[in-house]
Amino acid sequence: MTKDVMVIGGGIAGIQAALDLADKGMIVHLVEKTPSIGGRMAQLDKTFPTNDCSICILAPKMADCFSHPNTNVITYAEVVGVEGKVGSFKVKVLKKARYVDETKCTGCGECLEKCPSKVPSEFEMGLSNRKAIYMPFMQAVPRVMTIDKEHCTMITKGKCGNCKKACKREAIDYEMKDKILELEVGAIVVATGFDSWDPSSATEYGYGRYPNVFTALEYERMINAAGPTHGHIERRSDKKRPIKMAFIQCVGSRNPQVGHPYCCSVCCMHSTKESMLAREHHDDMESTIFYKDMRACAKGFWEYIERAKRDYGVRYVNSDATVQENAETHNPIVVYDVGGRQQSEEFDMVVLATTLVPRKETLELAKVLGLKADEFGFLESSERILEFGKTVVPGIYLAGYAAGPADIPESVAQGSSAAAKAVEAIVQAGG
Amino acid sequence: MADTIKVDPKDKPRIGVFVCHCGTNIGGFVDVKSVAEYAKTLPDVIYATDNLYTCAEDGLVSIREGIRKHNLNRIIVASCTPRTHAPLFQATCESAGLNKYLFTFVNIREHCSWVHMKEREKGTTKARDLIRMGVARARLLIPQEEQRVDVEPSGVVIGGGVAGMTAALSLADMGFPVHLVEREAELGGFVKNLNNLYVTEKSATDTIKPLIEKTKAHKNVKLHLGSQMKSVEGFIGNYEIVIGAKGAEDIKAKVGTIIVATGALEYVPEGLYGYNQYPNVVTLTEFEILCKKKALPKMKNVAIIQCAGSRGQVKTYCSRVCCNVAIKNAINIVDNYDNMLGLAEQLGTVIEKVPVEQKVPEEIIERRRRRRGRERGEEGEADEVKLGPSEKIEVTVFNRDIMAYGVEHELTYNKAREKRVKFVRYTTDHLPRVYMEGNQLTVGYFHETLKLERTMPVDMVILSTPLVAQPDAGDLSQMLKVPLGQEGFFLEAHVKLRPVDFATDGIFVCGTCRGPADITEAVTQASAAASRAAIPMAKGYVQAEALTSVVDENKCSGCGTCIQVCPYGALRKSEKGLAEVIVAACKGCGCCGATCPEGAITMTNYTDAQLLAEAKAALQEEV
Predict the structure, then answer these.
(1) What's the CA gap between B322 and B466, in Å, rounded?
(2) The CATH number fitting domain A199-355, selected from 2.60.40.1180, 3.30.710.10, 3.50.50.60, 3.40.1280.10
């Protein structure tokens, strides 16, 4: 019997669950797959409906979560096996070799300058490069480097070793091996979040073919001051700043043909925010949002839409839309429908609100944990109405987007709720 | 944790200044590097630097390193707002051994860069001015100690709907005794009016029955039905509450935390779409009651009008749940209409909570039967006419946008369309109209694609009206000293990251009293609120604010002005008849100090000397 709890996934839902548990005096093992906690919220520029800077409100929570005396944050790690039951799960965690000693590295970055390799940055949605030794983003927690073994020539070919030479703290260890940690916990919270669907296969939007078509997450990184363009909105084709922006909703979602018949819940709001931010960056920017239904239905959301129309000149067009291109200027042309009449309009840039899908690895994890997933890969609650987040396995609870589309405050509430359920289970199991 | 650094007020100040770029939020508009250089020239500043993000781990490390390397005994961070970031920087000082009250925040983002985005030079000068003021104050800061306040490990939940019951049960299951106060004679709140619940089509009564039974049976839940909160005094961990019931003696209790779950009501659409004017115009909840009582009239055409009174019509907001409730009912009508047909003897039964003013009058039913009979040439035999599957009932949902967010709602919306429920979009320029054409209830609307006015004879109009705040939410808000936001719903501490906390410690909020939510969302918030409330109760104590008001008994005349103005109930009269501060409740807001006619109240670390030093520095030319 143990009072420890494991949280899988270090995004905002997992961080909230971990903090709620740790503040109650429980020991929390937070397992995060990537080198840093923070999740998707860390990638967002600002958050609706207050336009709060996302990393500014998240970074303190990340720091709190990492430095809390009751948390054990295990990054670059995955859960690979679970045995036992509520009150005493025995969990196997694969701690991947990061080839950098976490206790020695200060994240000073001197190694970065010496690393010769270039790898598209996952955090920047491929809009800029990182090195083979890297920190995913500037505010990463923990603030330590990671070597991506696939792209490090020292590890793949035994040639280079520059980072080791540059590191004054002797933190680099090319011989580091993956480790299996065995932990005993009384309950588990699963908060593995979402991925952005790649819209290249939906050819009607031209993503990947037309240079000036972006996904929303790419755009979020681009408008972020710490992002790949330092906050400058730039076309891929000529690096010029766009003036006329089109935002297209439900790209791949609400669309049974591509296998995502559901609504992602957050895109109407994030596209509205992104349109407002365009105008905040430059007075002359004009945004048009092509939408099916404007789903702005939580506290203060409809008022936000009204504000976008009134104060930011955002234009809303109720229509499906597809994209063509003016081959000469690389200006995307949006084809849409108003009152049954087809229209087309040239823009400087198109931003696609692509489907947010549960992570593929979540299905693997579901198998390991014995959880059920629905046909889209979202983890299922055992009793949908009154016990959202409870699963078929007693002692395992869900929070955040992995359990179905949710925005940040919903994910936070679900994180706290899962924490409560975990404590209840441990208390009831006699812990 | 480093060893504690002893700082005597008489020691020479050694100030460190950390100026934050906040990405480009500050750095894009203010010359941060030159501001940090300027800070180095100010009196007693030993060290100054700039950080891209002072709040990120590297920034925090630079503060800790600065304290260690330069023996700093005052820290200034010039960045964003203390609301979100002061606790982080204070904790950082503490982790380096420095008393956190020797930390000063200077806001050069909200107060400077964001309002001077187009005036780089002036903005930079202002940032220098603000830091000079901060330094002047920091020199006079003295270390403070926080008091530990014990927390009573029990709670009270106000409201016995699904949210309140869930919150109470969660606390109870975590092992904390909890009082559950419900003003009605039975548990169940809004949901007990409903017919079935979406997603599962399970009956509402059957769904919440186990919850009600578990609540009643739980040994840790003390149930107070037909009762209301009469008063609340005290502060986190130590609330003295009085629960009152009609004709019974008041019950007094001491609790550590409070959860507000008082729910919402359905808006009554007086004056809209013929409500209360024409027969068979009902609200969504009234319709559910008719379904539940199997009291639907005979009908063939049903119109449901969305956003009746919301999204700018009367209330500004979208009520979130009505589209999905309407879709559920549309499917219900198409699939189960025969089973919900009216049985005359049940029409008169008492309907609680939401009275159906608009009971479907018998004569209307009669008239319609006769009319249908005539249409078929079945004079006199109309009573026997039954709408079989061959004669499909038609439902049209007039909407602005269908809020079928997420997985299940969107799939249900698709299912409704497959079942031939019609969805007709309207805009605010052309609202649908409900009127009588002779004896025929009729909906007139503008067809947006055809650009034509159309009419539709209907047998019933269902108005999807928004959830609205409880009319007496204001009283509870005053009793608990927690704020109401827009349209009378309770206002949480932070819309993104603190959805179920109030700004006041020890009080939490969940369910529809904080804004429209469906049952699943309400219960999720409820167990989240229980999780938050359990934190101080599990710890058994809270660390009280050290920056409080202090009463100089030699100057106090005992006039009591301060007691009246304190928004947190943190002042009382002592046995000597003088003002006394309840340290655990005091938030250090300074209202008392500002109103004291004798000048007997000062605020720790906001003394006149400190504030005047700051003001003088503001007026000073640059050094």
Answers:
(1) 7
(2) 3.50.50.60
